[in-house]
């Protein structure tokens, strides 16, 4: 849904899709549809939400209509709904109209008379173009981010600001292409993982992304959770979709307290606007949803099955988190770190993401990392972040240079920065036979012991990544 921005959400969407195993899409989709009954394609859900959001801002729409009184009001309103991105960027003051803007306006099916004015092909008040762009942005944001993302919930890791849930995965080659383009067009673009308004923190999303690699196991467990909690469902609810949403929430952020879970479930249900909403809330349904969550904490059979699986998912998610941190710190752009996200940070949407962080604990962990202590499970993410950013401090040149993809198969992301001065190797999906075409020369390992070795061509991925699951190397000298 986002286009051309530089504030970091695009990277979060790309790296999330990169670690979403394409083999998991079909089984997870089938499971979601079976257990929830929701078969509506996401674009249909988003379109319906945009129609409602458009009606919620009548004054803005009326102003646009007043600037084009000769046009059919319904056709103009439909064009607002049909725009597939937040907004276009036509500049009436300069006459600039990008080819992409032209394609987007044409794709809305807007009446020729309206399209010609929005694209400056015919004389039109500059305010019309500006007001149209100012209208489509909030309509899309409200409808997609604040409504559709809570209604169509196949895999919550993809329901994120600036993302498109219909894109389940991203091939390694496509990720590299985005990095190369970013190096050329937006070399100082922010690279975000977690922000003040992400729907879930990067670590929470990483756990849910892990489900794409183990869909059969998730299928087995989530069916059990539905079965052992059926007796908790009352006449007002919760609905199967709300239960699916709740189980994903627990997996992504466990452990979390009941008060956090209650606040989040109510917010999510009201945002979805299906069983309750912010204006005319259904108190009986909300009470049933909260009661289900509260009673869930007392169902021993649920926890006996949930906790071991959640621990497995957490381990898999942590590997993804560490990998994403290294990519955020080494691909073209500026690594952004949200408060508290230096180490494990399992949060949900605002206001949960704004909870106070234990800065003293994080300071102690950072001191340990700086002192050269071996990384532990608790410090793995912080360790990688510190070592990678320290390398950028010591050798800034490569990180404002080129991003050169290296051939490493379909399951591994490998590249160099600058003039083959820094080597990054990140396994995305499991492939024990993966190799990297490494540039010839002598290299020093950065993340762990600083060992040096000569590389020259085809090298097993397993020998370039250590216990942290990723590899970062700096060139010591030129090709030998």
Structural notes for this entry:
With 480 residues, this protein is an alpha+beta fold. 49% of the residues lie in helices and 9% in strands. It is built from 17 helices and 8 strands. It has helices spanning 9-18, 25-36, 42-55, 58-66, 73-82, 99-107, 112-118, 126-151, 172-185, 202-210, 215-229, 240-253, 258-272, 283-296, 300-330, 359-370, 380-394, and strands spanning 190-191, 334-335, 403-405, 412-417, 422-427, 435-445, 452-460, 471-475. The strands form 2 sheets. Strands 3-4-5-8-6-7 form a 6-stranded antiparallel sheet, covered by helices on one side. The chain has a two-stranded parallel sheet with strand order 1-2. Strand 6 and strand 7 (452-460) form a beta hairpin. Helix 13 packs antiparallel against helix 14 (283-296). The protein is globular and about 70 Å long. The model has no long low-confidence stretch (mean pLDDT 94).
Short description:
Helix content is 49%, strand content 9%. It is an alpha+beta fold. The relative contact order is 0.11.
Topology:
Elements: H1 9-18, H2 25-36, H3 42-55, H4 58-66, H5 73-82, H6 99-107, H7 112-118, H8 126-151, H9 172-185, E1 190-191, H10 202-210, H11 215-229, H12 240-253, H13 258-272, H14 283-296, H15 300-330, E2 334-335, H16 359-370, H17 380-394, E3 403-405, E4 412-417, E5 422-427, E6 435-445, E7 452-460, E8 471-475
| Unreliable parts | none
Task: Report the span from N to C terminus.
Answer: 47 Å
The proportion of strand residues reads 5-15%
Major beta sheet summary: 6 strands, antiparallel
Number of strands: 8
| H/E topology pattern | HHHHHHHHHEHHHHHHEHHEEEEEE
Total of helices: 17
- Spatial strand sequence of the major β-sheet: 3-4-5-8-6-7
The averaged pLDDT comes out at 94
**Judging from the principal axes of the Cα atoms, what is the shape?**
globular
Structural class by SSE content: alpha+beta
Q: C-alpha Rg, in Å?
A: 24 Å
Helix content: 40-55%
């Amino acid at each position: 849904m986002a286009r051309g921005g530089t504030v970091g959400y695009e990277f979060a969407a790309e790296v999330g899709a990169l670690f979403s195993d394409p083999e998991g899409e079909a089984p997870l989709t089938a499971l979601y549809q079976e257990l929830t009954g929701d078969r509506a394609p996401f674009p249909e859900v988003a379109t319906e939400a945009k129609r409602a959001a458009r009606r919620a801002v009548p004054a803005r729409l009326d102003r646009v209509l007043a600037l084009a009184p000769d046009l059919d009001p319904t056709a103009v309103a439909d064009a607002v709904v049909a725009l597939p991105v937040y907004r276009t960027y036509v500049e009436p003051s300069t006459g600039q109209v990008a080819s992409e803007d032209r394609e987007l306006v044409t794709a809305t099916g807007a009446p020729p008379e309206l399209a010609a004015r929005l694209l400056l092909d015919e004389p039109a008040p500059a305010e019309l173009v500006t007001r149209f762009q100012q209208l489509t942005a909030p309509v899309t944001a409200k409808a997609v981010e604040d409504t559709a993302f809570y209604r169509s919930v196949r895999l919550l890791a993809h329901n994120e600001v600036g993302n498109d849930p219909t894109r389940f995965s991203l091939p390694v080659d496509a990720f590299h292409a985005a990095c190369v383009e970013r190096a050329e067009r937006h070399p100082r673009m922010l690279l975000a993982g977690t922000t003040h308004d992400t729907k879930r923190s990067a670590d929470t999303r990483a756990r849910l992304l892990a489900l794409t690699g183990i869909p059969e196991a998730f299928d087995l467990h989530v069916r059990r959770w539905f079965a052992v909690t059926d007796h908790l469902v009352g006449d007002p609810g919760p609905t199967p979709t709300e239960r699916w949403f709740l189980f994903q929430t627990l997996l992504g952020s466990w452990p979390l307290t009941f008060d956090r879970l209650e606040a989040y479930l109510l917010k999510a249900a009201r945002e979805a606007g299906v069983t309750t909403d912010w204006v005319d809330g259904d108190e009986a349904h909300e009470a049933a949803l909260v009661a289900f969550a509260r009673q869930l904490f007392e169902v021993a059979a649920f926890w006996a099955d949930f906790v071991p699986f959640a621990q497995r998912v957490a381990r898999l998610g942590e590997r993804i988190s560490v990998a994403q941190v290294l990519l955020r710190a080494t691909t073209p752009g500026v690594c952004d770190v949200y408060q508290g996200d230096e180490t494990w940070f399992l949060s949900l949407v605002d206001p949960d993401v704004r909870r106070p962080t234990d800065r003293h604990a994080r300071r102690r962990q950072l001191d340990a990392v700086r002192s050269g202590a071996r990384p532990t499970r608790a410090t793995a993410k912080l360790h990688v972040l510190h070592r990678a950013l320290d390398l950028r401090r010591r050798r800034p040149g490569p990180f404002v240079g080129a991003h050169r993809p290296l051939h490493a198969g379909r399951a591994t992301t490998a590249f160099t920065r600058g003039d083959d001065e820094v080597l990054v190797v990140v396994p995305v999906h499991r492939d024990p036979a993966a190799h990297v075409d490494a540039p010839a020369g002598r290299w020093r390992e950065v993340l762990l012991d600083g060992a040096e070795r000569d590389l020259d061509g085809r090298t097993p991925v397993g020998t370039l990544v250590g216990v942290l699951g990723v590899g970062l190397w700096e060139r010591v000298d030129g090709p030998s």
